[in-house]
Each structure stands twice: as structure tokens, then as C-alpha cells.
Specification:
heterodimer; A: alpha+beta; 14 helices; 9 strands; elongated; B: 6-stranded mixed beta sheet; 7 helices; 10 strands; about 30% helix; about 30% strand
């Protein structure tokens, strides 16, 4: 016979009420945990996406700033071109450590996988800082001229053959989700592959494509260590006419602003639910104490100290919180997957599933919070029964 | 030479507040009990018997007076220390069903050991055998009659080998045979363990089985025999 076994049996005394309380705690925990994971998923995607882009600054044509912003923030397929020599002039600016061109191509028809919003991005393997590092790490080689790399949002598998502008490409690999649409909804190919596709399109495609190696859509810039991306961006705009710069920090800030409302709502929901949890758990303990006042008084008469009595009551409260909370965490995990999978497409929010270790740590933190609230909620009723003379408790409970 | 008192209760008093008005329950009640003694307290309802017993056992703070248990002043101790003294030296038997409904007879008997002291499963079985319930070890209170439940409560009161047993109407609703059996068990324990029994009862006959008899009248305790 232990405190825990007694607590378990006491919980089974009124199974209907215990089940109801457990259901309330589980559902509240589930919504709390799902909201937490969802909000963390958004910030994780922002951090991860910015890091994966690999660039501190993106240089785009002045007149295409809005389109470029839309492409970076929501992966909206777009096509625009910089003037000739922009790349060379960017590389000449002090503080620029690395600069690489990218060419954005918007297919004119539904060409891949039943989707019309596939975004083709051509990169220069010699200088690229976004795709090449990924290929080195995951594929161990660079793309052949007939190969493409797909984002996680493209429903294609390695080995699949997909035509663009009449040229059939083989999927060499598919990237893992990054949470950033510009990366997840794009198809990457080398500059050479894109130029050959454009050249062949006059024969193979009803909608021929014209590309110019010297006119990329954007130039991705990495600044020298210690230099300020914002400062370099200002210099670039000053020194090179007809361009606009977007910094990675600005992209993250823009997405943050876009997602702020949702995150605020989630935080509000979280606070309300935490208060509900404290109230429900407080109610549960108050019921236990008021119903068993005489029993608790008898235990004091047998020699239970206030602390021992509190342990008995808290054990019930903690068991209920731990059991129902664990079920709620599992439910919350499923709910967060559903949230991440369904409505996000419409909201266009960046979202990325958290790594398993972060998820487990978050679950442990929520469980800890739940147990702490259980103890907090039981503090007042436990103190009240502990402060009463045992004889008064016995008499008032009879 | 004076024998040392097992329980020395001096000038206890307690006043309750009822509807905002003071209602004196016990006035200046004193009682000295030695090892091996049994004392019965009779009196009308509301005369202060149970209040006196609760104060003497350390479960109701007196308005005045003191309680010395083997020399320890119960009400000068902190709550934890008083709880430990109760666990080690005092047992209560109440009139009402005082068993935990989720525990078996055996577990109910061992319940005080959850808070201190030591008693084995064999001790619990021996106590239940003593009260004639050796065949009810695994039974829950709902599976037993009122008399059987009270016998389990007696076994629980004795398992920690207390120095003082405080019984408040321990046989109130029971039949004569069970009443007699419970008294036999309690008096035998007191004799064999050199303990003390203070028993509150309405029954003159039951009171007569104790070595000393007192009467509580209007909050005052008088020894009659």
C-alpha cells in the first residue's frame, strides 16, 4: 500500500467524474500543446528558411520589388530580369563576399504534377550558396544537365520524369520541408540545363522560352563576416541603378509581421487555456477535499502530518494531470499535424514540423507546466484542510 | 511513591461559537490516567464528552489547559510533532464507520503505518483474528456489516500498539454480542500492554466495565467511582 496506489483507487471511486475531469484536462492540454507547436513551427520555419536561403541580401530589379517580395515570402511563381552586368557590379561592391545569380522561370502551362504554381529556379553551380551545399550534403554530387531537384511541396519522387517546355527532366532528389514556400514549391535546375531547355523549346514546346545567361532574375549576396547586411544593401542600391535589395532580416521580419496576428491569437488561446486548466484542477481538488473532509480528518487523527495529507491529495491531482495530460499531448500532436497540413495552404504561413527532440522537450515542458498548475491549484484546498483541527474536519464532514 | 501518569489532562476548557454567541463546551476538566487503567465518561448529549476526548487526544486545540502524554505537553508541540506523537502513542475509535472505502480490511488496519511506525501484514492479520475477522482480510467495507466494520476499526486502533486509546461511543449502534466482544478486546489490550483506555459512552452498563467512571455535566468532569 503506497500513497500512489491509494490515490489511484480514490480516482476510481467516481469514474464518471474522473473521466469528465480527465477529458477536460486532455482536450485543454491538446489545444494548448497544438497551439504551442504550431507557433513554434512558424518561428522554426522562419529561422530555418532564412538559413537555408543562404544569402544575406537578394538583389532584384527595381520595378519587380513587389513581385520578388511575393516570391520570397509566399513562393508565388514569377519571372523578371535584371539588367546586364548587375552581377559583375554587385561583386565589385566592398563588403560583398559572394554573389550568385538565380533565374526565375514561370511555366506558362500546367506542366508538373497537376500544379500550375510550380516555380522553376535556375542556379549557377559554380557560385551557388542555396542548392549546391544541400546537394553536397545529401546527394554527394551535383546535378546533371538533365536532372532537377524538387522542393518538398512538389509531388514528385527521385527517378520521376517531368517535362518543362518540352524537355524531360529526371528528379535527382527531393529536398526536405523547409517551411519557406520559395524553397518548398520550387524546382531547381542548373543554368546550363535551363539555357538548353530554352534553346530546345522553340522546337519542342508550343510556348517557346527565351533566356539570356547575362540577365538573371536575382543576385543572392553573402556579405563578408562582420559586415552589416543592411549597410551593404544601402550601398548596393546607391551604386547600382535600377535595382532593389531585400535582406534576409527583412524577409523574416515581413513574414513575422504576417504571422504575428496568428501567433498572438494562439498566445491568447494558450493563456486562456492555462487559466482554464488551473480552474479545472482547482475544482477537482476542492471536490476531493470537500467530499472527503471526514476521511482526511480521520487520517490526521491517525497521525498524518499536514505534509503527508497534502501528498495524498496532491498525488490524486498529479496522477489525474499526468494521465489526462499525456493523452492530451498525444492528441495535441495529432492536432498540430492536422493544423500544419490543412489550413496553412490557404493562410500561406511558413510552417515546419519541429525536430523530434524539440517536440519531446516541448511535451515535457507542457507536462511540467500541467503538473505545476495541478500543485498550484491544489494549494488553497490543501492548506484549508491542513489548517483545520482534525476533530473539526471529522465533525464537519459527518 | 506516586506512579507517573500516562495521560495527565489539566484544566481543559473550550468554548464554541454558535450563531455568533459563545457556547462553553468544556470547563476546567482534569483527568489523570495511569498505565493499565480504563476510564469511562458518561453524560448527556452536548455535555462536552467528545470535545474533552478530542482535546485530550490532540485533535482539537483547547481554549485553556494542557495535556501531558507520558510527560510530553501535546499542545506545546508543533503540529508535525503532535501528529507524530498521535501516530506513535494515541489511537482513536469513533462511533461512525471510519474505514476508507477503497481499502480492504487488511489495508485499513495497516493505514496508520503509512504515516509512521511499523506493523507487518502478519500484525494486521493477527489483529483481525483477534476481533474475529480472520476470514475477512481482503473484504472491502461495503462487503461488511456495521459491526464488522467497527471491529476492523478496533484492529486498526490496536495495530500500532498505542499507549492511549480514546474511544468515542465505540459500540454506539452495535448489538450486545458485538459490543461485549469489542469491550473484551479493548480491556484485554489495556491490561496486557499496560496502556490506558478512555471511553465516552451513553451506556451505563458499558461504562461499568471500566475500572474508573466519570461523569461530564455542563462541561465539568467528575469522577464517580
Amino acid at each position: 500500500m503506497t500513497v500512489l496506489s491509494i490515490a489511484l483507487r480514490n480516482l476510481a471511486r467516481n469514474p464518471a467524474r474522473t473521466a469528465l475531469l480527465a477529458a477536460i484536462i486532455a482536450v485543454t492540454t491538446a489545444v494548448l500543446f497544438a497551439s504551442f507547436l504550431f507557433a513554434r513551427g512558424i518561428s522554426h520555419a522562419l529561422r530555418n528558411g532564412a538559413a537555408r536561403l543562404g544569402a544575406d541580401i537578394v538583389v532584384v530589379p527595381e520595378q519587380a520589388e513587389a513581385q520578388a517580395r511575393s516570391a520570397l515570402l509566399s513562393g508565388e511563381p514569377t519571372a523578371f530580369l535584371l539588367d546586364r552586368n548587375v552581377l559583375v557590379r554587385v561583386r565589385a561592391v566592398a563588403g560583398v563576399s559572394q554573389a550568385t545569380p538565380q533565374l526565375f522561370i514561370k511555366p506558362r502551362t500546367v506542366t508538373c504534377c497537376g500544379r500550375s504554381d510550380v516555380f522553376l529556379i535556375a542556379f549557377d553551380p559554380a557560385t551557388d550558396m542555396t542548392v549546391v551545399p544541400w546537394l553536397d550534403r545529401n546527394l554527394g554530387r551535383q546535378l546533371a544537365r538533365s536532372e532537377i531537384l524538387t522542393g518538398s511541396g512538389i509531388p514528385a519522387f527521385p527517378g520521376d520524369r517531368i517535362p518543362f517546355f518540352g524537355t524531360v527532366f529526371t528528379v535527382a532528389a527531393a529536398m526536405e520541408p523547409t517551411g519557406m514556400d520559395i524553397l518548398d514549391r520550387s524546382v531547381f535546375m542548373s543554368f546550363d540545363a535551363a539555357l538548353r531547355m530554352a534553346a530546345d523549346s522553340s522546337v519542342l514546346s508550343p510556348a517557346p522560352l527565351t533566356l539570356d545567361r547575362d540577365r538573371p532574375s536575382a543576385v543572392l549576396v553573402r556579405v563578408t563576416p562582420g559586415a552589416s547586411p543592411d549597410r551593404i544593401a544601402i550601398t548596393l542600391e546607391h551604386d547600382i541603378p535600377g535595382i532593389r535589395t531585400l535582406t534576409a532580416g527583412m524577409v523574416v521580419t515581413s513574414v513575422k509581421q504576417q504571422t504575428e496576428g496568428v501567433v498572438r491569437i494562439l498566445a491568447g488561446v494558450g493563456i486562456v487555456l492555462a487559466v482554464v486548466l488551473v480552474l479545472v484542477q482547482g475544482l477537482a481538488v476542492s471536490l476531493i477535499v470537500s467530499e472527503r473532509r471526514r476521511e482526511l480528518g480521520l487520517l490526521r487523527a491517525m497521525g498524518a502530518t499536514r505534509r503527508q495529507l497534502a501528498s495524498l491529495i496532491n498525488a490524486e491531482s498529479l496522477l489525474l494531470a499526468a494521465g489526462a495530460g499525456s493523452a492530451g499531448l498525444a492528441l495535441g500532436f495529432l492536432l498540430s499535424r492536422i493544423l500544419a497540413g490543412l489550413p496553412l495552404q490557404g493562410l500561406r504561413l511558413p510552417h515546419l514540423a519541429l525536430p523530434a527532440s524539440t517536440m519531446l522537450l516541448s511535451a515535457a515542458a507542457v507536462l511540467f507546466l500541467l503538473l505545476a498548475t495541478a500543485l498550484m491549484a491544489s494549494a488553497i484546498p490543501v492548506r484549508s484542510i491542513g489548517a483545520a483541527d482534525p476533530y473539526d474536519a471529522i465533525r464537519s464532514g459527518s | 511513591m506516586n506512579r507517573p501518569a500516562l495521560l495527565d489532562v489539566r484544566h481543559l476548557a473550550r468554548t464554541f461559537s454558535v450563531a455568533g454567541r459563545p457556547l462553553p463546551a468544556v470547563h476546567d476538566a482534569s483527568l489523570i490516567v495511569h498505565a493499565g487503567e480504563s476510564v469511562s465518561i458518561v453524560g448527556h448529549s452536548g455535555s462536552g464528552k467528545s470535545t474533552f476526548l478530542a482535546m485530550a487526544g490532540g485533535i482539537l486545540r483547547p481554549g485553556a489547559g494542557r495535556v501531558l502524554l507520558e510527560g510530553d505537553d501535546l499542545w506545546q508541540r508543533g503540529d508535525d510533532e503532535r501528529s507524530r506523537l498521535r501516530n506513535a502513542k494515541v489511537s482513536f475509535v469513533f462511533q461512525f464507520a471510519s474505514l476508507m472505502p477503497t481499502l480492504t480490511s487488511e489495508e485499513n488496519v495497516l493505514l496508520p503505518t503509512l504515516f509512521g511506525g511499523a506493523a507487518s501484514l502478519e500484525d494486521a492479520e493477527r489483529m483481525l483474528e483477534l476481533v474475529g475477522l480472520s476470514d475477512r482480510l481482503g473484504h472491502y467495507p461495503r462487503e461488511m456489516s456495521g459491526g464488522e466494520q467497527q471491529r476492523v476499526a478496533i484492529a486498526r486502533a490496536l495495530v500500532t500498539k498505542p499507549r492511549v486509546i480514546l474511544a468515542d461511543e465505540p459500540t454506539g449502534d452495535l448489538d450486545e454480542r458485538t459490543e461485549s466482544l469489542i469491550m473484551d478486546v479493548l480491556l484485554r489490550y489495556v491490561r496486557e500492554h499496560r496502556a490506558a483506555l478512555i471511553m465516552v459512552t451513553h451506556s451505563r452498563e458499558l461504562a461499568g466495565r471500566a475500572a474508573r467512571q466519570c461523569m461530564m455535566k455542563h462541561g465539568l468532569l467528575e469522577e464517580t467511582i
